[in-house]
């Protein structure tokens, strides 16, 4: 195992991500909670920090059990920390040291900088600079503005770098981490989803003990994998709640609920469709619809959580991209938390939070889910927005419109599956437009609804392109929809990319 000591940098999780890309397991611990058994770790990495070592309240951990005993890589703040408190000197930088820089490598070509080319691009983000190296420090690399961009300590396997190897823009960052972990620290590259499951289950057991945990299931990949992990750890003390907001896909509530029960989860299905649809009646503004659904969800979940005695934890299927978003400069996006802060928190949000997937990216979540034997069909499901069909019914929502759109969506999605196209598409769905168009059926003129079909390819939903679905597929689906779904007489296919369009229409 590799230990990452966190000094509060926004990039700490990214270090973990890079380490795991090397198939090496790592754990992040706060700097003030160094594990007792620290000498059993194979290597330690010190993260960056928003603090300056010169601040009174800057993190000041005791590294005596680590230095000289376990290979150590100190990044940014870590590098300054080693210098400042061990005979070197750290001062405010004269020039701004943010962003791109190029390395001039002086020493250690065989070890830390093996296979890294001269002038390799690195990413800097610091306002202090190391003026003098600590005792026994040997300079390894410089950049144009930073004399001591990398150094090592003579007589120890201790290395320090001022730049951030974990960020994407440090071109050889991964190579450097590999050099440190594999070549220098001799860590084996054997992290697997199975190891993650074992470790996480052990941690959850330890953290939760005999306490009860409540979790909201959505039918999606993240909350399902989180539930299965927790179930492995604490069994029947996990109480899952699956809310039907009346805006799910056709038959989804019952079929997903059955699937959860088959998986042995202790899950309560709560059908609150009427409550959601009542609250939405007459609302057409997209943001108002989203907020209404968020508010009613919290009310329903809070009511349900109150029915359980003695719950101590709230589990969430938060994954790493959500974490990045919530700590980004723009602050948390429209999550449950942000718009509920105003009127005081509902009781369930005062519970302690457990987020077993906090460190994982979506592909890793899927691998972990597969490892635990979760149905591949469930793991391969397209993303589906929390507000569900509400944001695919443009304008106001009525039960009849929901029914129409569920039928259309079902034909489209089932068609994609039947034609083996489902897995080639990142996300797909149908949109009910708020206009009627003229048609002719038999001898009669019709004046009915238009639906749009949307299928996109993407990796993260941030950018997307429409999928070039086969014409004969589109022809068949269009025909089936118009013949089978009463109230629809026209089908169009959305051929807009994101940007400038978005995936959803609202
Ligand atoms: P857009 O429409 O912004 O969508 O291109 C990008 C991804 O986000 C999903 N999405 C949402 N998910 N609540 C959610 O949970 C929302 O309000 C919401 N709006 C969009 C969308 O389905 C796509 O995967």
TrEMBL record:
Residues 191-381 form the GMPS ATP-PPase domain. It is an enzyme of class 6 (ligase). It catalyses: XMP + L-glutamine + ATP + H2O = GMP + L-glutamate + AMP + diphosphate + 2 H(+). Keywords: ATP-binding, Glutamine amidotransferase, GMP biosynthesis, Ligase, Nucleotide-binding, Purine biosynthesis. ATP binds at residues 218-224. The active site is at 76 (nucleophile), 164, 166. Its EC number is 6.3.5.2. One of its GO terms (molecular function) is GMP synthase (glutamine-hydrolyzing) activity. The keyword Membrane does not apply. The keyword ATP-binding applies. InterPro entries: Class_I_gatase-like (IPR029062), GATASE (IPR017926), GMP_synth_C (IPR001674), GMP_synth_GATase (IPR004739), GMP_synthase (IPR022955), GMPS_ATP_PPase_dom (IPR025777), NAD/GMP_synthase (IPR022310), Rossmann-like_a/b/a_fold (IPR014729). PROSITE patterns: GATASE_TYPE_1, GMPS_ATP_PPASE. Gene3D superfamilies: 3.30.300.10, 3.40.50.880, HUPs. Homodimer. This is GMP synthase [glutamine-hydrolyzing]. The lineage of its organism: Bacteria, Pseudomonadati, Bacteroidota, Flavobacteriia, Flavobacteriales.
